[in-house]
Design goal:
The complex is a heterodimer. Chain A contains no helices and eleven strands. By secondary structure, chain A is mainly beta. Chain A is globular. Chain B is 0% helix and 56% strand. Chain B contains no helices and eleven strands. In chain B, the strands form two sheets. In chain B, strands 2, 4, 5, 9, 10 and 11 form a six-stranded mixed sheet that branches. In chain B, strands 1-3-8-7-6 form a five-stranded antiparallel sheet, with no helix packed on it. Classes of the chains: A mainly beta, B mainly beta. The interface between A and B is medium-sized, with 25 and 23 residues.
């Protein structure tokens, strides 16, 4: 596989469930990102990881818990979500932080919270 | 504060030129980007421009930047049905790696 992949592509979960989203990049990049894309808001940056370290948390509720075990993998652990958390969750990666910031996006996970 | 704004919708006939406009408020923006999102897909970087440039051309795409007015535009020449998508404008600073996106412009190309 090439580029940025995300699994699952679609996820339906109840408010009491625990699930995880996975992102993998095959580009040798050092920075990875989680974004939330909902119908009525601009794309929102959630978390940034540079060289496996979290460098930005954009006031995201604690029911979203990111994890970056290495530069190629990024997870988003979900628990006790709310219906308003239903959205497209996009992962992205970029070569190095602090440069031109050309980000490459995955196809996203469409999350529905019932 | 940072704000990037775009019009919501653009309809264009196949073969015509499309122009998508974007305004931003942060004068320290250094890099300005155009991304394309097709249905069911993630965002694809189309092109970007440094703030010290006023124009960049890449095949059918022309980016114009008016730094004084903080206005960015994307012109697509000879628009094709495959150009139907949502186009996002984004900006970032010289340092750090946070992108601020506009709300996206949905472009519909009619045959």
């Amino acid at each position: 596989e090439t580029g940025v992949t995300q699994t699952p592509r679609h996820l339906v979960m109840g408010m009491t469930n625990k699930k995880s989203l996975k992102c993998e990049q095959h580009l040798g990049h050092n920075a990875m990102y989680w974004y939330k894309q909902s119908a009525k808001k601009p794309l929102e940056l959630m978390f940034v990881y540079n060289f496996k370290e979290q460098t930005e948390n954009n006031s995201v509720p604690s029911r979203f818990s990111p994890d970056c075990p290495n530069s190629s993998h990024l997870f988003l652990h979900l628990h006790t979500l709310q219906p308003e958390d239903s959205a497209l969750y996009l992962c992205a990666s970029s070569q190095d932080p602090g440069t031109s910031n050309e980000q490459f996006f995955g196809p996203g996970t469409r999350l529905t919270v019932l | 504060g940072e704000d990037v704004e775009q019009s919501l919708f653009l309809s264009v006939r196949e073969g015509d030129s499309s122009v998508i406009n974007c305004t931003y408020t942060d004068s320290s923006s250094t890099y300005l980007y155009w991304y394309k999102q097709e249905p069911g897909a993630g965002l694809q970087l189309l092109t970007y421009i440094f703030s010290n440039m006023d124009m960049k051309q890449d095949q059918r795409l022309t980016v114009l930047l008016n730094k004084k007015d903080k206005h960015l535009s994307l012109r697509i020449a000879d628009t094709q049905t495959g150009d139907s998508a949502i186009y996002f404008c984004a900006e970032s600073k010289a340092a750090g790696n946070k992108l601020t996106f506009g709300g996206g412009t949905r472009v519909l190309v009619k045959p």
